[in-house]
Amino acid sequence: SPDTFTKITSVADIRRAKREGRVGIIIGFQDTTPIADKPERLQLFHRLGLRIVQLTYNGPNLVGDGCLVPTDGGLKPFGRDLVARMNDLGILIDISHTGWETSRQAIEASRVPVAVTHGGAAALVNVPRNKPDALLKRLAEKGGVVGIYMMPFLREQGQPVLTDFVRHVTHCVNVCGEDHVGIGSDNSISPLELTPAFRKTHADFVQARRKAGISAPGEDENVFNYVPDFNTPRRMELVADALAKAGHPASRIEKILGGNWMRVLGEVWK
User: Fold this and answer.
1) Do the beta carbons of residue 43 and residue 62 sit within 8 Å?
2) What values do phi and psi take at 121, rounded to 5?
3) What sign does the dihedral 186-214-70-161 (CA atoms) show?
4) Comparing C-alpha atoms, which of 190, 166, 187, 182 is closest to residue 241?
5) Residue spans of alpha helices (H) in 37-150
6) What is the rounded distance in angstroms from the CA atom of residue 58 to the CA atom of residue 43?
7) Residues ≥6 apart with Cβ < 8 Å to 238
8) pTM of the model
9) Gap between the Cα atoms of 183 and 237, Å rounded
10) What does the pLDDT average to over 172-178?
C-alpha cells in the first residue's frame, strides 16, 4: 500500500511522509539476536532499511544484559564492537529494555547520541523497565532522547492514566532538559478495544511471558498497555493539550511531540 505507507531511512523521508500524508515506517530491531555473532550482518540489514537497534531485550545476550538480569555485568566486548559499527553506519542505538549498567556503558561507548525510545523514570516508579535519574541525565548530556511510553510501568499498580504520563514527562524534562524528552508511546496507531476476546488474549500473553522469563515487573493480566485518556488516533493532539494544561510552553511541547526526535535522528543517521 504505497499510497498509505512509506519506508523511512532519513529525516528527509519523515518530512516527505508528513507532507504527502503517508504513514512512515522506521525499521528497527528490539534485540540484537538477529545479528547473532556475525557483526557484518549489520551492513546487510542497514542496506535493507534498518535504522534503530535495541541492544538487548529483557534478558542477556552477546552484547550485554537486559533489565531483568539481577546482576548487570555491563557491555561485553562484542557489544562494544556493535556499538562502534552502528555509529559508523548511522544506526540509532536503543537502550529501552537494556539493564542499567549496560545502558550506562553503551552511552559512554557511543560517539553519537543514544536513545531510550520507550521508557519512564525509575525515580517515580522503581521498576526495571524505567531508568534512574543519573542514567537519564548522562543520556541527555551526550545528546540523547528518552521517549515516555504509555505502559503499566508509569505507576506502581493499576491502569496508568493521563496524570501518570504527564508526571513522567515533566520529571524527565526537569532531569534531562526540554531538548531530550519525547513521546515513545509503545502503542499502535489504532485504538485499543477491550473486548472479552482481547482481555483473554492479553491475559494469555502475560502468562506466556512469565513462563518464558521475559515478563517485567509491572506487567499484569488486568492492566493494559495503554493510557485510556489517549486511546484514539488523535493521541498526539490530546498529549499536547495535557502538557499545555500542566504548564509546559508551546515551544517545549513542539520539541516533545517530535522536534527532539528529528534532531537526534538527524545527528545519528548518515
Assistant:
1) no
2) -100, 120
3) positive
4) 166
5) 41-47, 77-89, 100-109, 133-141
6) 25
7) 229, 230, 232
8) 0.97
9) 12
10) 98
Residue 101 contacts residue 151 (beta carbons within 8 Å)? no
What is the pLDDT, as a whole number, of residue 246? 98
- Report the alpha-carbon distance of residue 14 to residue 6 in Å, rounded: 9
Q: 211 exposed, middle or buried (CB, 10 Å; 0-12, 13-18, 19+)?
A: exposed
The β-bridge partners of 23 are 5
Kindly state the cell numbers that stand for 224: 493494559
Q: What residues pair up with 93 in beta bridges, in sequence order?
A: 53
Cβ neighbours of residue 187 closer than 8 Å, sequence gap 6 or more: 150, 225, 226, 230, 235
Cα–Cα nearest to 30, from 69, 59, 3, 73: 59
Q: Is 244 helix (H, G, I), strand (E, B) or coil?
A: helix
Task: Write the DSSP symbol of residue 215.
Answer: P
Q: Could you tell me the pLDDT band of residue 144, with boundaries at 50, 70 and 90? A: very high
**Radius of gyration of the chain measured on its C-alpha atoms:** 18
pLDDT at 189: 87
Cα 74 off chain centre by: 20
Q: In the block, which residue shows the cell 513462563?
A: 211
Stated as kind and residue range, the H or E segment containing 14 is helix 11-20
Q: How confident is the model at residue 62 (pLDDT cuts 50, 70, 90)?
A: very high
